[in-house]
Amino acid sequence: MMKSFKLIVHQSSFSAEDLIINLKDYPGLKEKDIVEIYHPENDYPRLLLQVTKVDSPGRGRDTISVEHSIATTFQLRTFADVYVNIVNVADVALDSVELTFKDQYMGRSEMWRLKNHLVSTCVYLNKKIEYCGGAIRCQVYEMWSQGDRVACGVITEDTKIVFRSSTSMVYLFIQMSSEMWDFDIHGDLYFEKAVNGFLADLFTKWKKNGSNHEVTIVLFSRTFYKAKSLEEFPQHMKECLQKDYRGRFYEDFYRVAVQNDRYEDWSNVLLQLRRLFTDYQKIVLQYHERPNMEIPTAINSTAAQGNFLEVLNMSLNVFEKHYLDRCFERTGQLSVVITPGVGVFEVDRELTNVTKQRIIDNGVGSDLVCVGEQPLHAVPLLKFHNKDSNLNSIDDYSMPHWINLSFYSTNKKVAYSNFIPRIKLPPRKSQEPLKKMYEDDKGKLLKDDDYMHNSDLLFDYDAYDAQVFQLPLAHGTCVQRVRQRTKKTSVAGLETCRKSPPVSAIRKMSDPDIHHSLSDIFSNGSKYSDSGTDCTDWGGGGAGGGGATGAGGRLSPRATHKPVKRTGRALINPFDPSHVTVKLTSNRRRWTHIFPKGPTGVLIQQHHYQARPAGEASRERETNDNTVTTYNHNGVCQVDGNVMSGRKRMISASGALAVLGTSLGTSLGTPSTTNNASLALLWGATGEQEWTPALTTGVDWKSLTIPACLPITTDYFPDKRSLQNDYLVSDYNLLPDDVNADFARNRAIYKEPLKTNEVFKELVSQRLAQGFQLIVGVNESAVTTPGTHAPPSRVAPTTAPVPAKCYLLSIGRVFHKLTLVGSTITVTRYRPRHPYPPFNIHYRYRFHAPYHDTYEVSWVSFTTEKLENYNWNYMDHYICTRGDTDFALVESSKYWRFRTLLLPLNNPATKQILEDETTHCDIYLTPTRQDLDNLTEGFLKMTESYFNKVKRPNKQRVAGGVVCGVGGGGAADSALTRRRHSTSILTKTQQLSPSKSLYSCQGVKAVAKTVLERTQSQTGEMDDGYDDGVIEPKLKANASLAEIIERMRHPTLGVGFLQQTVSLPSHTFVSVYAIQWLQANMENMTYEKATSIMEKLLQEKMICHASGDTLKRYVVGYYMYHILPQKKDKELHDYVKPLGDLQSFENEWMEVEVLGERSPLLEESSGGMDIVGCAPTADWRSIPAFLCDNIDPSYMQHHGSDDMPLYKNTHLDIDVSNKSDRIEWGHARYQATFRPDQAYEMCIQWAVASGNIVSELIVGWARKAQTCRHQMVPIPADPLALPFTEKSDPLRGPIYVPLNEEPLLRGKSALFEGFPEETWLERLFLFQEAIVGRFGFIKCTVESTSHAAGVGDHLYVHVTGNMFILIPTTVKTQQKGRTKPVNKLINADRYPVISDVVPSPHEAYITRSVSGKNKDDYDSSRRMGFLWSWNHMISKKLKFSQTPATGDEGFQMRMLRDFKHFCANQEQRLSQFWDQCWELREKAIGISC
């Protein structure tokens, strides 16, 4: 029923609904119905909207109101008449929808949950979609239905959703092979075509689309050397040489031009690339030349022989770590190789397998853009290195479906012709008489088949080809396809005809999955008859049968042909791959759901065009669906608008709604060869588009502008026979209710467990997050019965209603089936019976990073991951128990993490450097005592209010002001309950034994001052002074412990207790505030006395740690203790006991010890310095630490209290605003000790949380940190990216800044001559530390990721968070009389006992940077210096107006330049600093004499 309405429009501010309609006006209309709205006279795509709110627009009868922007998009005129019509959902269901999003991290679990949220909703072009309370935002970009692009439609269960990200991590690799210096047909250098042409166009498209990718651009090439043996090379060249399979020596060079940068305008980068091009070849080829030294001739390789696969693996080493350095502003990873070649590469078979497996498993988009001319054979084509020296061995090829190929051509016209050549003509050769090699007989001809000459015109080449490319008799892994010449629709599958077909019709396939196993033989039970020939199936034999078993007689038609002498592997003919099909695998279908279905029902790639002679009329062809589709010569589908039962929703080719202007290329309407669902075409990314020589490949601009994320669905599941033969099956049951009941008994704190259904969904979510895909379109029965495959990407309805919920998932050759029946979850795992062997390929290369001076040697390992080894059982229990302490996150779980540092907020020196261009950068002063106190105070506030989320009440006037209300931001008890019932996790730490060693630490007095001199007027709610509230006289200095406890409990004058909660006992107070309270409320109280009083109270069992643990010493800091009830106390009835479980307590609360700054001196003498040897303070008598006499010999090794671990763990409530549609949680790993003069590290870890919600939590913290005088800065997992680190970024490395000590020696043999020799190392280190201190760097005690030994390297971070400096040091072994720490397990691997003085690996790295020689011949004088690296994790979301220098590139460059100048002693700055320090020493000595 159609009805006419008057149309009005409304703004989204008036109503959030897209459509407002009154039900009374349209009988039969109900909520959730889909209506079609259009002007009767208009030919424009019709609008579909869903009735979500039944309401009157309030403008009289028969009026409907549509949101303004939608009406504009669909050209609906206000106040005009429109027809409204209820439509059947099936008629307007969408096949696929593309959603774009930017500036956010959307995990695969979120994609799936968003997809489920969108089912049964109506979408239209550019519709904005919000999810998880607006945390996730995306927009509809393109929709496809019934083979056409449409403007609106309904998302159903079967709709494929493609997510495309406008902010991805993009690696652009430009291959600088010899062809870059050749000219193309228009007379341009291929480099110009690549940079001025392709890259310029790409950047323009990015800008137009609003894409803001994080980009790394690398120029790469391979240099061959003309040499027969290694002896021909001088020593300095041998370090990086590699040898190929033909015995040629080569070296690979990488020049990083842009590293992890985002620009609005890329024109400067194009300029920079042109500059690099000018002398790239000269620098690389002459890199090793030295005066008076002969080196072998260097030659730049061609594109085909270049380091193409190596470069893809380089990016994979970075992409694989996406969960370690999780950035919240981007999603998606793309490697693009730009080559002057034509898409043919000579490669190593093993490296191909590694690359293929890694690219597919990691779900990384890989694009190859060729600026050469498209050849007349199928590309991309990998030619395997032929390691067989036999002349008769034939080359083997592979056509990777995992590389998306584009050909870039400029639209320049040549005046005299519009012919475009598709091949490069070879250079002219003299006409030598051709040898008559092949004139004897055909037998010999078949033997010598590595060269073929056109002179032999009598020879039947077709017959020869048919033999070369046919199946070898004894090799059964390949599938035969028969092609009748009479009919174009070829018979798909394994059938062969009894009537012997023409020889030339036999075509064969070569499996690109190079790992053949006999069990790959595929059998098909269907009978097939075609054009009167009687066909029967023939299959290879059983798994061990070698292929011919049980099929001997049926192979007889083939046996009549004389076999070609060649290897056992079937070969690919690159000039005619179109009839070769391969057995379908999950790898083959991994990406197919990002492609739309064309008019013929096959998946199409939109940048493939069918070329046709210009004058030829477009012809019609019948397709599978018997609908006639017309093609015109430019490859755009002109579709009859009335296909969809008279509705015009689709966008015609010329329609104004055409997106990105891409025309739809199709493969001339060829029917899908995949009617047999177990086969796919060998060539092409979809496996459904047939290759013909007339197929022109354009540029896939969409993939390069808004790359697709790996789809969350796929459609391949092995058949029953394959499951039995090729897979190992194992399963386990999970009963969440039982598991939780079990664990709840042992838990100190009860937490609401996840419901079984929630656990079930989360199991699916986690698998998706780890790269699995949901398998759709496989009939449930197909999992158990053979040969019942639904065609790929066609979703078959499930036959019988099953009460059980079931999901099938896959990654690579690992399949999981998750079933929920009642309250039991069953996980069935299928793993390959014969897994691929693990690979580990070592690779050495030279790379030149930005701001480096040389091509440094580096090395990397390319390894494949054994996905079948992931411990899913453990992960499923982690989810089931809500991440409680019984199942901690382990490294092998590949959980996500985000590392942050808390740094001082403002430094006047930073402001000065930003404002004054001329000022030097070594102007950072030592922080004053007041500065350090403020930082400590701010940190305590941060811990209390934001990390532990406890709040102090304003009203009660309490000494110390520590009584607490509950919940973030003063929320009521509900917030508290949520916080306390959230889950918890902790790695099991052993019970810490008591130790009195605290008092031996340096800096205790500093703490005393810190806590005593708290600023009296705190901001906001902490406005309580100590003294003005004390009316009663202070406690006497000799008061008894009982009197002290009595006063501590005083309601107004007492220490102030935290409100009792689920996990806190009665009368809980914070240790550092108790010390302050004693100092304020007792006569003659010093810090030392206060601590000893508290320690006594602990020993007398009057107070105890709030967990009930009696072994803990009194730790000063944010630690919680409670007053124990004494026997005489009457109010025992309302006393709440502690948990009695330290581990559970630590899992709920963050407790940090607070210490003063560390001094490098043995005792605090008047001549010492407050802070580690920085610039002189106002007290000019203080001597720089490196010139003092009383240096602490253990200063370089010692980190914190002996009984403290370096890090502690606690549970984290992630979804504080309750935005998510599921329960989410995470963990915080934080440093156990805070020192005000050092950076403080906290790492957020999660597996069950949405990236955007984690991001909101962290951004909230970062904002709040500023009110606490700190800034929160993200840092990389591996700050220096040195090659010793496993999986370090192969294209990143620190910058070596040498320290020029020559001018400081002044005739001395050693820098610190005159001081005891055993202190020289420490003094040198303190001198370097003093220099970095002057430049604003502070100590950063982080776990050593750089090498296993962790040998005494010291890392510093700039106060702005922009950069790191490492001071490499050599540590002496004997640690005089130092007792081993109690928690030996935690620190054992950090300080190994070393037999002699050991240089750190970083020194070796430095040596190489400096001298380029082997590490054996270095001398210590050359080795002084620093390693400088950038913090590439700083993001837009964490940049605030208060910290303008953070992430400011100009500031960073100035710092590096000035630091280099200083260390090189330019303008005598280093010498002046040295002299000033000596003057201070002499003054101090003079005064003390």
What is the gyration radius calculated from CA atoms? 37 Å
Total number of helices: 29
Shape: globular
Helix content: 10-25%
Strand tally is 62
Roughly what is the average pLDDT, rounded to an integer? 75
Contiguous runs where pLDDT drops below 50 for at least 5 residues: 433-457, 472-568, 614-648, 652-675, 784-802, 953-1030, 1164-1181, 1345-1351, 1372-1400, 1410-1422
Could you give the distance between the termini? 108 Å
Q: What's the story with the biggest beta sheet?
A: 10 strands, mixed
Structural class: alpha+beta
Please describe what this structure looks like.
The protein is an alpha+beta fold. It contains 29 helices and 62 strands. Strands 14, 15, 16, 17, 18, 19, 21, 24, 43 and 44 form a ten-stranded mixed β-sheet that branches. A six-stranded mixed β-sheet has the order 2-5-1-6-3-4. The longest helix has 20 residues. The termini are far apart. About 23% of the residues have low confidence.
Describe the secondary structure blueprint for this structure.
Elements: E1 2-10, E2 19-20, E3 34-38, E4 47-50, E5 63-67, H1 68-73, E6 81-86, E7 96-101, H2 108-118, E8 122-124, E9 128-131, E10 136-145, E11 148-150, E12 152-154, E13 160-165, E14 169-175, H3 190-209, E15 214-225, E16 242-243, E17 249-261, H4 267-285, E18 298-300, H5 308-319, E19 333-339, E20 344-347, H6 349-362, E21 365-370, E22 381-384, E23 397-398, E24 404-407, H7 442-447, H8 461-468, E25 480-482, E26 495-497, E27 506-508, E28 528-530, E29 533-537, H9 556-559, E30 581-583, E31 608-610, E32 620-622, E33 628-631, E34 637-638, E35 679-681, E36 695-697, H10 701-705, E37 713-714, H11 720-726, E38 727-734, H12 736-746, H13 756-769, E39 773-775, E40 805-811, E41 814-821, E42 824-832, E43 840-848, E44 856-863, H14 872-880, E45 896-904, H15 908-915, H16 929-947, E46 950-951, E47 965-966, H17 973-980, H18 1004-1012, H19 1041-1048, E48 1068-1070, H20 1071-1081, H21 1087-1099, E49 1103-1105, E50 1117-1118, E51 1120-1123, H22 1142-1148, E52 1152-1154, E53 1207-1212, E54 1226-1231, E55 1233-1234, E56 1240-1246, H23 1251-1267, E57 1270-1275, ...
Helix pairs in contact: 2-13, 3-4, 5-6, 16-23, 20-21
